[in-house]
Known about the structure:
By secondary structure, the chain is of the alpha/beta class. It contains 15 helices and 21 strands. An eight-stranded mixed β-sheet has the order 6-5-4-3-2-1-14-15. A seven-stranded mixed β-sheet has the order 7-8-9-10-11-12-13. The longest helix has 19 residues, at 437-455.
Amino acid sequence: MTHDLTVRFLGVRGSIATPGMAAGGNTSCIEVVAGDTRIILDAGTGLRTLGNERMATGPRHSTILLSHLHWDHVAGLQFFTPVYVPGHRVEIASGPNGVMSHDAAIRSLFKAPFFPVDFDDLGGVVTTRELKPNDKFVIGDITVTMAKLNHPDPVYGYRLEHAGQSIVFATDTEHFACVDPTLKKLASGADILIYDAQYTPEEYPQKVGWGHSTWAAGIELARAAAVPQLVLFHHDPGRTDDQLAELEANAARAMPGTVAAREGMILSARGESGRGMNVARERAMLLEGMENDQRFELLADLGAMIAGEVELDDMLATFAARVARALGADRATLWLIDAATGDIRSRVATLPELAELRVPAGRGLVGHVAATGELVNVRDAASDPRWDGEELAQQIGYRTTSMLTAPIERRGQIRGVLQVLNKQTGAPGASRNEFDTRDEEFVRALAEQIGRALDYTTLRGDDASRGMTVRGRFNHVIGRSPAMAAVYEMIVKAAQTDATVLLHGETGTGKGLLARAIHVNSARREAPFVHVDCTTLPAALVESELFGHERGA
Ligand SMILES: [Zn+2]
Ligand SMILES: [Zn+2]
């Protein structure tokens, strides 16, 4: 069977579990899935949730491939419930560790005085398998290739392939001074590379020989191996959420689309026709899996925006309708907070009656969510005092019954609000049509993905204040390539001067957009932007139009 190869992150931290982090504090554990084939990579503390999930609903056969045996990669094993349950089968495999047989090593993890349950008392549920350093083998629908990486104790990287898609897991490896040829070969042409980025390039010189790497080395490797999607992994336990976001932003500036792994994040290696290469699509979704295709597609498209370069407005054109449909709601509105005025403006809405709505800061439910960052699910709008929609309802003749409103946050600041109105199809057994907890979780995931996508447009706000730069900047000029970044820089420079700017280029290359961008970013922004189409004016008039004329001339 052909399915998309996807990866889910259950633990993203390195060295030791770090509670209280929004990005996730559990240590190394991911699950790669293709159809019915599921492979667990590493057994850090993130493994515990997966065990619970498998006990509740999941498969009874678990295959775990370990990168190596350091604590942060095995500390979840003893708390992976299936190992204690007859009827389950758990196979734990890895390459040679250089000290003892793999079987002896796993046995010593279940041994007094370190752990009260002895391996022999597990009832034969667990088997071990020692792999060869450069093994290639098949598990279900997935082909696995191994390679030995660089770490104080032997460590192995894994390339997992299915139907032309591939994901490479390379953690706890050091780059030293150049691209590791073994790893380059393992990752060559893969869709997704999950790579150790424990240190920043600035920190690394003090950590040489510790067996970890940096985002910068990850980018060099991804480029050398032609991998479009880099995922930064094995975050340092001391890395705060803010620092991680900064590290991620630095990496994404150098290689667009690069993301930091976060607990609960899902990525697919699905290829996209027309793009010329596979673009990994992020599907930040929920542990129980996505049932609704529309929801899935929506998140995937937003993810593709991050990995690729798209026209924000093109995507947003159909956005509200798709959000509404995916949530079984009647209407949806994306509101952005104007950083300059504090006003909250509707960016796109399924409200054809109004071109743009504006809500003063703090007003109504949208204002409440924008101010507090709270997700609010109103099941009965008429009885909720925060809903002041009566006025609006009369204005447009629209009656609101249920309402789900979520903040869009990015880098610690509230940027906007996503709101959906009037659930059309309630959950079975619901007394009336209202948004349920699954809808809440989806809206939360969607809002997060929107925040991430907006960050990659020129609408992005700055770290120090809430809201976004809704006017000015280069709102309509989207593109994040290094070439476009250079163009933005030039716009800023040109906008600061009073000099006349001449843009030249072929028809359709966006001269008009750039001229407007220079205008709205200059001191002249409050003055009108006058567009003169010279091609339709007689030559003599062009001169007087541009430079004025003397009376009587
Ligand atoms: Zn580690
Ligand atoms: Zn290690």
